[in-house]
């Protein structure tokens, strides 16, 4: 089932959903599935599964050579999607990246997803691979998510790469894209970022999921500007409960967002992470209540490997 149909079928009732991250290389799937199982009580109709390509740092050695150290590679997105579908009967939403792939590899990947009966994809460019500061596409890959949206939209019309035959069987993916209430960090200003978001929708994206934010006003303003710009697709707020004191600094740095002063003040007086976590949970509950009252179609939680605080929030909110 498509995300847009899930939203339509909910008839205005807010939907609970989550994003999970594949385990690090060599870890087992069991931990991930056990971790999210308690959240099934809140009946998520879909679960996003992120995709992470290999990243590395270069360390100069005394002999002048450079050692390449792989720092992050979390394969397994497709397998996890399949497991989620079979174990929980929930629609998985694999993230599909521009970075690290040629368009041919992407086509093959999408064909696999289609064969598996996966109806939804979240299309993303991907971050610059460490140690670089700027994004570099793979040769014959894409520089922007909008180009990949166009490829999926073409496949949905039965138009594949390098095929003359136009009578090929089409896929039928519902396509999500990312939106940034606090602006994407590379965009010179909000207006430009907005134009490119609009481009992703014009090329065929069906819904938007936002980067996490802690100040609902940022989301409300973002939605308002989208509507003024003629973007009429559902805009799903992405939420992450703050869970340690350190995250006050870490999350703004990684995700390019601002922490509201009231939250900063409340966390700063905490004596330990347990207290900070409780403040984070309560803050998120308030955010959820306000978002639901304002008609947000879905509350989408970034688990980042932790599900127990999200269960506490969902218990209060759903
Ligand atoms: P784009 O929409 O391509 O935009 C990237 C930048 O380029 C923006 O600054 C935009 O303004 C600009 N731009 C867009 N089009 C053009 C154009 N035609 N000309 C000039 N500039 C342009 N990363 C992962 O690696 N794996 C994941 O699973 C993952 N999941 C995510 C899920 C969500 C909900 C979000 C919000 C982010 C996720 N990310 C993930 C991070 C994402 O890959 C980064 O934020 C990335 O830097 C931008 O991706 P995008 O799809 O928004 O890029």
UniProtKB/TrEMBL annotation:
Pfam family, one: MTHFR
Matches recorded under CDD domains: MTHFR
Enzyme class: oxidoreductase
Signal peptide: none
Highest taxon, organism lineage: Bacteria
Biological or metabolic pathway of the protein: One-carbon metabolism; tetrahydrofolate interconversion; Amino-acid biosynthesis; L-methionine biosynthesis via de novo pathway
Protein name as catalogued: Methylenetetrahydrofolate reductase
Reactions listed under catalytic activity: (6S)-5-methyl-5,6,7,8-tetrahydrofolate + NAD(+) = (6R)-5,10-methylene-5,6,7,8-tetrahydrofolate + NADH + H(+)
Family of the protein in this entry: Belongs to the methylenetetrahydrofolate reductase family.
NAD keyword on record: yes
Molecular function GO labels: FAD binding; methylenetetrahydrofolate reductase (NADH) activity
GO biological process: methionine biosynthetic process; tetrahydrofolate interconversion
Gene Ontology CC, one term: cytosol
UniProt KW keywords: Amino-acid biosynthesis, FAD, Flavoprotein, Methionine biosynthesis, NAD, Oxidoreductase
């Amino acid at each position: 089932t498509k995300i847009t149909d899930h939203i339509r079928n909910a008839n205005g009732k807010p939907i609970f959903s989550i994003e999970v991250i594949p385990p690090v290389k060599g870890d087992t799937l069991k931990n991930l599935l056990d971790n999210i199982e308690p959240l099934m009580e809140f009946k998520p109709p879909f679960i996003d599964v992120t995709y992470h390509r290999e990243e590395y740092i270069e360390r100069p050695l005394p002999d002048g050579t450079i050692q390449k150290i792989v720092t992050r590679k979390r394969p397994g997105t497709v397998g996890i999607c399949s497991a989620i579908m079979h174990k929980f009967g929930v629609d998985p939403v694999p993230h599909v990246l521009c970075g690290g792939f040629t368009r041919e590899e992407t086509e093959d990947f999408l064909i696999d997803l289609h064969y598996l009966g996966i109806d939804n994809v979240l299309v993303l460019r991907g971050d610059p691979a460490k140690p670089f500061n700027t994004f570099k596409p793979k040769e014959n890959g894409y520089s922007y998510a909008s180009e990949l949206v166009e490829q999926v939209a073409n496949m949905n019309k039965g138009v594949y790469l390098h095929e003359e035959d136009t009578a090929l069987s089409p896929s039928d993916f519902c396509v999500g894209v990312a939106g940034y209430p606090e602006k994407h960090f590379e965009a010179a200003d909000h207006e430009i970022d907005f134009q490119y978001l609009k481009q992703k929708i014009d090329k065929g994206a069906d819904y938007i999921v936002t980067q996490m934010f802690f100040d609902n006003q940022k989301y409300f303003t973002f939605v308002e500007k989208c509507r003024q710009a003629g973007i009429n697709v559902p805009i799903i707020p992405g939420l992450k409960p703050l869970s340690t004191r350190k995250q006050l600094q870490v999350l703004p740095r990684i995700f390019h967002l601002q922490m509201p002063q009231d939250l900063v003040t409340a966390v700063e007086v905490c004596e330990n992470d347990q207290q900070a976590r409780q403040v984070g949970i309560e803050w998120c509950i308030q955010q959820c209540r306000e978002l639901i009252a304002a008609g947000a179609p879905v509350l989408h939680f970034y688990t980042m490997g932790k599900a127990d605080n999200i269960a506490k929030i969902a218990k209060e909110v759903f």
